[in-house]
Amino acid sequence: MRLAPRPTPSKFVLAVLVPTATWFIIRPLVEPPPPLPALHASLGFSLLAFLWTLYLVPALGQTFVKAGLKGRDLLKVYNDDIPESMGLICASIYILLLILFIPFPFSHFMSLSTSEGLAKQEFPHFQLSVYLSSILSILMATLLGFLDDVFDIRWRHKVPIPIIASIPLLMVYYAESGNTNVVVPLPVRFLFGTLINLGPLYYVYMALLSTFATNSINIIAGINGSEVSQALIIAMSVVLNDLLYLPWSTSYRFRLPLYLLGGEADIDVGGVWSAGMAHGSRQLVERHLLSLYFMLPLVGVCLGFLYHNWYPARAFPGDTLCYVTGMAFAVVGIQAHFSKTLLLFFIPQIFNFVLSCPQLFGLVPCPRHRVPRFDANTNLLHPSKAMFERPPSRLSTVVLRLFAAFGLTELTTHPKSGTILEVTNLTILNFFLLRIGPMSEKRLTQTLIATQISGSLLAFIVRYGLAWLVYDGDRR
Amino acid sequence: MRLAPRPTPSKFVLAVLVPTATWFIIRPLVEPPPPLPALHASLGFSLLAFLWTLYLVPALGQTFVKAGLKGRDLLKVYNDDIPESMGLICASIYILLLILFIPFPFSHFMSLSTSEGLAKQEFPHFQLSVYLSSILSILMATLLGFLDDVFDIRWRHKVPIPIIASIPLLMVYYAESGNTNVVVPLPVRFLFGTLINLGPLYYVYMALLSTFATNSINIIAGINGSEVSQALIIAMSVVLNDLLYLPWSTSYRFRLPLYLLGGEADIDVGGVWSAGMAHGSRQLVERHLLSLYFMLPLVGVCLGFLYHNWYPARAFPGDTLCYVTGMAFAVVGIQAHFSKTLLLFFIPQIFNFVLSCPQLFGLVPCPRHRVPRFDANTNLLHPSKAMFERPPSRLSTVVLRLFAAFGLTELTTHPKSGTILEVTNLTILNFFLLRIGPMSEKRLTQTLIATQISGSLLAFIVRYGLAWLVYDGDRR
């Protein structure tokens, strides 16, 4: 082995972070309880998720290599075996912590504690079922993702796999008589009314959401850090969105030790936030808390894994990571009822999907790998190309010329007849290389991350700035 | 390949069984609903579990072999690759059907239907959480079992794995403030009182139960059909025990078309059963129904797999099967509160465990495989032996001489000094060969099955014939 595992941080980091995580976890048990006790514990668990992933990934790498779960990095000059399917470790840590977290939001002890603004008197049976069915779906996605890695299932066969993993979600949704109404956008309300009951179609929508969330991340792969950084930024965007709905202002005070600086004893932060976007709706707050319980540890796990998956990668995620993160996003979108907002955080993925359609649906030849081409001399990536064995059909030609006109692809045509001979592969990564020019792999990942962040900013603008154009305040 | 997959039954069987299963599943939706609608559906799903396993195991065998999940049959003359870890298929079918079954016992539609004697008015949130956490534990056991197969985890490391899989069970049990009291047996009641609250110890007991149920089956392995036949008979014993508690007599009528034979229109079966062992306790009936929902499809899956695992085996279960079945038994024992009765069905496993102790705890050398020795000339199995590299300690000698005196093992001693040189491996399989004499592998499996059945008969005698000696009617 020439490529040693990336070194883990010094013991000093552990000595600071482990007690911090422990304090967050036991804080809800100390009197007086904080306003949102389970959220404190969730933060502690998320920190643990980060640390466990950070230390376990390098520790178990060689075990994976020995079991045959290994791969070569195609965009490097070296041939080292790199452990593959390490998303399994992320998934295991994530799920184990989600399970260990159960008693915090769901136990008689906790539910009887008076959390200001959220005093629960009855045991939250309904939420517990929802929570358990969500973990069940995520665990199924893990198992199926790992089977995909072991059995190397063909692309066409694996697209519908997330639908199977979403069955627990759908079944419990049905058993609990979940809401299947959608609010109709203003412009078409004269046709359908304000609310429309989709009935069974709603279940189809939920199943497709999980498929989309999984595969749309999985399809932007091939360069170090691409999958996990997409997941990380989407998860952080969801967290940010959830935070808007928490009852910050009701009586939450940030105690800053300002008196040390000669100022006042404490300062009331958040008072200007009004009651958050939830406007006092306990149901909305609970939904977004549920979403946070799933997203915070996911952020922890993704951060820890990104450290080892960062260029030059010491560990590969495998399909497992995409299945788990994709299912986690689908779960919160469905259970916390903000699937449309969620989809807004997938703008780069939607762009990539639309761009890929000609290759996915057979209009353009689709090679097994569409990753950019690596030039070992310059260490730069160039757009990779797909070659037409036979002249393209008229439909293909029209679509490709249209794509080329918008700068989405570059065509190589026959100098005399003008027939398309080659086309750059239709992925967002090749699109970046085409528009910005050849760049290093690390730079390409950074570009992807920047795009994902810009996409999320746009999403917030659309969601909170423009949504009034198509929706009124009726947001069920 | 010399060894072709065992042929699946003719299409005629399918043509009869598939409509039968479908009818059982849709019967609860037809008016008037049967007395226990979900049980009808469970029977239908169990039949499907049997059929799916029967057809999918041979269909996917080569996929497993190609992925490296294969093994040699050590007790045969041939060297063919046999697909290994096929318990994964059983587990997947089992869990998928358990999930698809959710709406039958747990949905507003079903819970509002008046089932005679069991009219439910409120939505059974509590039972749904219990059911989901059980599936979660079984699914974790599946994933961990499969990881064990892929990574080939060492024996000492894998013993505590079922404890991890039982965490969802324990967490939800805690969240729901599950009962941690045990009824004290009459002879020691003067010391502890009638009820004793074990508190945290009860959780330790539950975790150990799952470890025992898993490993005690896994340890009796190595001959074709041994693991799955143990699981099958234990599952059928639990089913039989559950049936005793159903409200057969309240108004359940078997409509037999006796008028076709000139008899009466229908006959009242079960009227003589009185109200079952539940004596009208709705809680007891619900617990045993829950147990049936888990055990009936397990019987289906085990039967289907036994067909392909029967001598000479075309498919091996791997550790996955033992993890799944063991966890399923622990789940019903814990959730339906009959763990002591459950342990009575493990009499052969307990015997094997006690017998194995000197080897498990290092008093006697323990070779990697303790399977009987195969004589290729006679096709018979003989007891295998462990050899002492150094003279045994005094404790080992005493224990082994005691075991030998009871006919549990056979010692080879030094003709002069009397030092023990060799000892037959301390397993129930070698014990059979020692007491009954060398026999074929098939005969040995049959002997194991006969012993398991006798053990269950003894269990019923102890549970319903002798339990009054140590317990009164107070059976919480």
Would you give an account of this structure?
Chains A, B: The chain crosses the membrane at residues 12-30, 42-65, 86-106, 126-147, 159-175, 290-308, 320-338, 344-364, 448-471. Chains A, B: This is UDP-N-acetylglucosamine--dolichyl-phosphate N-acetylglucosaminephosphotransferase. 2 copies of one chain form a homodimer. By secondary structure, chain A is mainly alpha-helical. Chain A folds into 2 domains: 49-106 and 126-357 and 443-469, no CATH class; 373-439, no CATH class. In chain A, 55% of the residues lie in helices and 6% in strands. The first copy, chain A, is built from 18 helices and 9 strands. Chain A has helices at residues 11-26, 37-66, 87-100, 108-112, 125-151, 155-158, 161-165, 167-175, 189-192, 200-218, 226-243, 282-309, 318-335, 339-344, 347-360, 394-405, 428-436, 441-466, and strands spanning 70-71, 82-83, 181-183, 195-197, 373-375, 380-382, 385-387, 411-413, 420-424. A 3-stranded antiparallel beta sheet of chain A has the order 7-9-8, with helices on one face. In chain A, strands 1-2 form a two-stranded antiparallel sheet. The first copy, chain A, has a two-stranded antiparallel ribbon with strand order 3-4. In chain A, strand 5 and strand 6 form a beta hairpin. Chain A starts with 10 loop residues before the first helix and ends in a 10-residue tail after the last helix. Chain A binds chain B through residues 63, 67-69, 88, 95-96, 99-100, 102-103, 106-108, 123, 125-126, 128-129, 132-133, 135-136, 139-140, 142-143, 146-147, 150-152, 164, 167-168, 171-172, 174-177, and chain B through 63, 67-69, 88, 95-96, 99-100, 102-103, 106-108, 123, 125-126, 128-129, 132-133, 135-136, 139-140, 142-143, 146-147, 150-152, 164, 167-168, 171-172, 174-177.
